[in-house]
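Memo to structure team: turn this sequence into structure tokens by end of day. - J.P.
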Amino acid sequence: MDLVVATRNKDKLREIKTLLKGIRVRVFSLDSFKGVPEVIEDGKTLEDNAIKKAVQVSKFLKKFAVADDSGLEAEYLNSDPGVYSARFSGKGATYKTNNEKLLELLKGMPLSKRKACFRCVIAVADKGKIIGVAEGRCCGKIGFESKGDNGFGYDPVFIPNGFKKTFAQISASRKNNISHRSIALKKAKSIISNHLSLFR
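Reply from structure team:
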């Protein structure tokens, strides 16, 4: 069966493809199809956006689809940037400008006030109907500067609990053992597998 990952983000697609290994599906991104309308992510929560993307994409393509919405929640900033993580630094936001804004807002704060959690919500839908929703969470702290060249997004500033290095400083395989997305996808894999079993 074909499985569409409702994203055009190549970094995210690569990570999700790796984590979905073992399931008998052919994985595609939105770039594999023409005319798929852009889904406006105007939900108030990560759950809202993930469900909206999965439902609209699966309905339009009449296929099985998964969509995720992820965000970094900094305790000192009242859980911001949260649902606004991708566009935290405003119009034309990049990974770099988002990280710079986050570090500036936490400037002068000790490590004890730099607690943060990455959250990922994955929604699974088939032909416009929601099949299930899974969530993953990885907590840690925001470092004092960007470090590392691996990963993407806020990875260069996020130090997971139990580590002294940022997500961007550790290997992709190590990150995939503990990340918010890997935890959510492990749960989503069982939702996907159970759904696929209906067609055997």
